[in-house]
Specification:
The complex is a heterodimer. In chain A, 35% of the residues lie in helices and 26% in strands. Chain A is α/β, with parallel strands linked by helices. Chain A has two domains: 5-241, 3-Layer(aba) Sandwich (Rossmann fold); 260-488, Rossmann fold (3-Layer(aba) Sandwich). The longest helix of chain A has 17 residues, at 425-441. Chain B is an all-alpha fold. Chain B has a domain at 32-236. Chain B has a two-stranded antiparallel sheet with strand order 1-2. Classes of the chains: A alpha/beta, B mainly alpha.
Chain lengths: 489, 309
């Protein structure tokens, strides 16, 4: 890197209450350079972006931009200093046309300029054409497809002529063709000597585009280097996959002629106009342990929320021969299809026991006592913590409580969404043992969603790989390393 | 091109309506003209409120705080210092501006519903203030002003119409200007607007000032039409609620819709008077139904229909 850095971040730190979201992060980006900032959910990458833009104020650290420390400035001053941002989700002006939305970005911050300068119109049209919106100048944003809305956001950022562009999840919700077009636009920024920071869940999405990658985990720097170096970094692989794939023991697949409990036929889900799930085909047999692995943002949580009845979908979900469409989430849960969500959703100000009792609400007193006794055997720590408020538990204990509460509903199918999120390795081992016990001592059917492949594979009878809203691989865990492992990160 | 023609269409409609309204005294009774006169002042209240809610995205639950400051400011100046009406109205607007600024500067720092709560409390405070300082303000009975705009119903009607027309041109023009666009962006997504380099606080405070000036002026004008200022006509929370309902009925973020809503609300209140107590109930029920089923209001609904085509 011979060219001088356009932005120098040093010692950037942000605390939310007791949580250190960003801890002593530092990096440089030069003019004409594209850097990827990656990390799984909760790693603090989005907070870093917000700190640079001024949307959050850092507790410590400096952000030198063209020789001036802009840390702690309000966003509009940082924007005027030459930093632009492309939000993943933003609310455009719906009563105005695409052209007017772009013109907005070209207006001066003045209370007295009632009439925009005459060149604003021509400049806005030129920008619209550059991002490929030339044909829809006079349409309203509400009538446009998702990719065009993102182009409009890109156009607004370009209009400010920023020296540094921050882009949040540049390709989320886009099709392959659209990804290529957007990559071209972002390369255009590099050609114009702008500095670019791409924020994304994983290296894979941005590998083809970036000059350099900075990886974060739990608020800390993990490593920095070329996309290839980062992808093969041991810590990165452990963060994303849990460790070395070769070490996973293969367990024999049982005979799979049991009846099908749950089947998805071509299920698709749209978030507004973004495709969150596309043509999902999935089958779960009675007593099976099925793992769905995929990086953050692939669509795992969406898939589980769809099965649990929270989201409208196309295609069919069939449970024991009957279509699930139209059944309320509460009814689905009571019928034995129980989800333990990624966010845990515990009742924080209730005690551990109250949380568990709520899960067993529909049981008779006798059955509940029995279920509870069984549960305390599975997670002994919960017995000790019975009287404690749920929000005061450690992360691992909270996860056990969340699983425990789901088990109190006596599920026939248990959906576990990313139970390892943010947990230390020791806790993972405990959880893993509990799952194994659950699998061996009960007839329960489990659907597990994980980014951490090492955690997900040993228990699984069958594995699906979810990537970019689609299922890209299906098979038994023994074949995963050879067939899907390489392309996973 | 389409949005341009729509803008032209609305300007044309404003001119046409104003021309028709100016001719009404030749065939409406003095009684109905009197009702319309009040409705026109209400129209300005509602427009000023819509600028703040529809554009800046801030819900002001106490529009009568600003209206009342203007009304009483003008009334006190007129009664105690005998200044001409014109001077009193300007002074009323200034009082509303200063009072509004004192309220808005600290309140706009609050987020979400707290701004609305502050404006609500401000109305109660002003109401108490007027009752406590009864020797200056006339207290609960209200205060009469020595000057009135005119004793003639037609003249009063034209004064109100002209005032409404000028305010509409200014406020509607402002809403369609570059500044209006920035204000809308600030109201809808403050972070995105800031990321585009706009000082959102500055624009919102400015919107509050404009809203205060017009509310105060209209409040003062109303005093010189009715010949008196009283808590029940310019400050009471039920008046505040009516202003809000009028603006929402007419259509949020349309400015002109607020005028339509006001005229509808005031006329409906008057024509349903034979129903006695049921009157307010029916009007409120209609308002509730419109808000529930057509949250975009009369004009918002009409405009959206065109947009869907």
């Amino acid at each position: 890197m011979t060219s001088p850095a356009r932005i120098e971040v040093r010692g950037l730190t942000k605390r939310f209450g007791g949580l250190v979201a960003v801890n002593d992060i530092g990096f440089d980006i030069a003019a004409g350079e594209i850097m990827g900032l990656i990390g799984p959910n909760g790693s603090g990458k989005s907070t870093v972006m917000k700190l640079i833009m001024g949307i959050e104020r850092p507790n410590a650290g400096t952000v030198m931009f063209d020789g001036v420390d802009v840390a702690g400035w309000p966003p509009h001053r940082i924007a005027r200093a030459g930093i632009g941002i492309v939000f993943q989700h933003s609310r455009p002006l719906h009563r105005q046309t695409v052209l007017e939305n772009i013109k907005l970005a070209l207006l001066p911050d003045s209370l007295l300029r009632l009439v925009s300068a005459p060149d604003v119109e021509t400049r806005a049209i030129a920008i619209a054409e550059r991002v490929g919106l030339g044909d829809v100048l006079h349409r309203h944003p509400g009538t446009l497809p998702f990719a065009s809305l993102r182009r409009m956001e890109m156009a607004k950022a370009i209009a400010r002529d920023p020296k540094l562009v921050l882009i949040d999840e540049p390709f989320a919700g886009l099709t392959a063709g659209e990804v290529a077009a957007f990559s071209q636009l972002i390369r255009g920024f590099r050609a114009e000597n702008r500095a670019v920071l791409l924020v994304d869940h994983n290296v894979k999405g941005v590998a083809a585009l970036v000059d350099r990658v900075f990886a974060m985990y739990l608020g800390e720097r993990v490593t920095e280097g070329t996309a290839d170096e980062v992808m093969h970094n041991e810590t990165v692989r452990r963060v994303y996959m849990g460790g070395d794939l070769a070490a996973i023991e293969r367990r024999p697949a049982p005979a799979s002629e049991k009846p099908t409990l749950l089947q998805l036929d071509g299920v698709g889900v749209l978030y507004g106009k973004a495709r969150a799930l596309d043509g999902i085909e999935l089958k779960v047999r009675e007593g099976e342990f099925v793992s769905i692995v995929g990086l953050n943002g692939a669509g795992k949580t969406t898939l589980f929320n769809t099965i649990s009845g929270f989201l409208p979908y196309s295609g069919e979900i069939i449970r024991g021969g009957e279509k699930l469409r139209g059944t309320s989430p509460a009814k689905i849960a009571r019928s034995g299809l129980v989800q333990c969500p990624e966010s845990r959703e515990l009742f924080g100000e209730m005690s551990v026991r109250e949380n568990l009792d709520l899960g067993g609400q529909h049981l008779t007193d006798e059955a509940r006592e029995k279920q509870l006794a069984w549960l305390f055997e599975l997670f002994p720590i919960l017995r000790e913590r019975q009287g404690q408020m749920a929000q005061t538990l450690s992360g691992g204990e909270q996860q056990m409580l969340a699983i425990g509460r789901a088990l109190m509903m006596q599920p026939k199918i248990l959906i576990l969404d990313e139970p390892t999120l943010g947990l230390a390795p020791v806790i993972l081992e405990l959880l893993s043992k509990a799952l194994e016990k659950l699998r061996q001592t009960t007839p329960i059917t489990v659907l597990l969603g994980e980014q951490n492949v090492t955690f997900a594979l040993p228990h699984a009878d069958r594995v699906y790989v979810l990537e970019h809203a689609r299922i890209v691989w299906e098979g038994d865990p023994g074949r995963f390393a050879a067939e899907a492992g390489a392309g996973y990160l | 091109m389409r949005s341009l023609s729509r803008s032209r269409l609305l300007w044309g409609a404003i001119l046409l309506c104003a021309a028709v309204a100016a001719l009404l005294p030749w065939w409406l009774s003095a009684y109905i003209l009197g009702i319309l006169t009040v409705a026109y002042y209400f129209g300005v209240f509602a427009m000023a409120w819509d600028l703040l809610f529809g554009f800046a995205g801030e819900v002001n639950f106490g529009p009568t705080f600003l209206i009342g400051l203007g009304a009483y400011g003008a009334a006190i100046l007129d009664a105690n210092f005998g200044q001409p009406i014109f001077v009193c109205v300007i002074a009323g607007a200034l009082v509303a501006l200063v009072g509004g600024l004192l309220l808005a500067l600290p309140a706009l720092r609050l987020r979400g519903p707290y701004f609305g709560l502050v404006t609500l409390v401000a109305v109660l405070l002003l109401q108490n203030f007027i009752v406590i300082f009864a020797h200056i303000t006339g207290g609960e009975i209200g205060m009469t002003v020595p000057d009135v705009l005119s004793a003639d119903a037609n003249a009063n009607y034209w004064y109100a119409l002209a005032f409404l027309f000028v305010c509409t041109i200014i406020l509607f023009g402002l809403s369609r200007s570059a500044v209006g666009l920035i204000l809308q962006a600030s109201g809808q997504d403050a972070i995105a607007a800031q990321a585009l380099g706009f000082n959102v606080t500055k624009h919102k405070v400015a919107a509050f000032c404009v809203s205060a000036v017009f509310s105060g002026m209209a409040g003062a004008m109303l005093v010189f039409y009715e010949g008196a200022a009283s808590v029940d006509t310019v400050i009471n929370l039920s008046i505040a609620v009516q202003v809000i309902i009028a603006a929402v009925l007419g259509g949020r973020r349309t400015i002109i819709g607020a005028v339509l809503g006001s005229i509808f609300l005031i006329l409906a209140n008057e024509f349903l008077r034979p129903l006695g107590q049921l009157n307010t109930f029916v009007v409120a029920a209609v308002a509730l139904a419109v808000i529930l089923f057509f949250p975009d209001g009369f004009l918002g609904y009409a405009l959206r229909g065109r947009q869907r085509e």
